[in-house]
Amino acid sequence: MLTDSHNHTCHFSPDAKTTIDELIMTASSLCIPRVAITEHYELDNPDPEDDIGIFDLDSYLNTFGEWKKKCPAGLELLMGIEFGYRKDIASRLDDIADSYPFDTVILSNHMFYDRDVYYNRDIVYSLPVKERQKIYIGRMAEMADRMNGYDIIAHYDYINKYNPDVSESVMYDGSPKEFDDLFEVIISKEKALEINTSCYAARKTAGDRNILPDENLIRRYLDMGGRLVSIGSDSHTKEALSQHFKEVSEYLKFCGIKEVVYFSKRRPYTEGL
Length: 273
Ligand SMILES: [Zn+2]
Ligand SMILES: [Zn+2]
Prior knowledge:
The N and C termini lie close together (about 10 Å). The protein is about 35% helix and about 20% strand. The strands form three sheets. The chain has a six-stranded parallel beta sheet. A two-stranded antiparallel sheet has the order 4-5. The protein contains nine helices and ten strands. One zinc ion binds next to loops.
């Protein structure tokens, strides 16, 4: 099994249901060697409907120490965080990344027109797919460029997560310039591109058979020199831990990816597929 580099618990992420005990038990029973816990950190969240905000970082640090103590041999917990990006808070997030001993820092764009995609879905999904994707991926390229305190760029397909039309996917051809801009930045900064299996899980549940990432997109990333790819289930429940890892990693291999990375103490380590 591979490291699962993106997960949430109910202790610090209000939208997650998994307790740390459930997470540890499930990871052990699935023989997952490492699990990164990457709790949501939405600084100055402007959305009044969204209860995801920030938490006390010192108490997270202390709690994580306790969690590590109850971890059985054969399972390693990596202390991570998932930053929600907005332009006006970028430098504050960079400072936080440098001030705490994180193993893994994930950077995410959850916003569309300054609201979470989930709360803005009527507007998001009324736009033509290419226009929607250009705006969203363009913003991701901006965030990757503006910030430095991160290791992994999360879920480029978050924009599609709540799409009622299950036939639509995030494809390279939908916004090639924006994807090239994003890839150029993360390759030059040696950051990793995340393949997030939760979007595929959601679409599979909706009956869609096309649950895998776009092959053109992955091949373009590799052609441009991209070497760092991470894989995360973005689990919010114990059932979702490492969900679809087997089929997605087989597919990544088919696309030419030989290894994925996880981050420990902010450094990348490879695992063969
Ligand atoms: Zn996210
Ligand atoms: Zn997440």
